[in-house]
Amino acid sequence: MTTMTETSARFREFKMPDVGEGLTEAEILKWFVQPGDTVTDGQVVCEVETAKAAVELPIPFDGVVHELRFPEGTTVDVGQVIIAIDVAPGSGDAPAPAAAAPAQEPAAEPEAEAEPKGRTPVLVGYGVAESSTKRRPRKGASAAPEAAAVAAAVQAELNGHAAPAAPAAPAAAVPAQGGVQGGRPLAKPPVRKLAKDLGIDLATVVPTGKDGIITREDVHAAAAPAAAPAPAPAAVAPAVAEAPAVVSDSARETRIPVKGVRKAIAQAMVGSAFTAPHVTEFITVDVTRTMKLVAELKEDKDMAGVRVNPLLVIAKALLVAIKRNPEVNAAWDEANQEIVQKHYVNLGIAAATPRGLIVPNIKDAHDKTLPQLAAALGELVTTARDGKTSPAAMAGGTVTITNVGVFGVDTGTPILNSGESAILAVGAIKLQPWVHKGKVKPRQVTTLALSFDHRLVDGELGSKVLADVAAILEQPKRLITWA
Question: In a 10 Å sphere around its CB, with 0-12 CB exposed, 13-18 middle and 19+ buried, how is residue 356 labelled?
Answer without folding.
Answer: middle
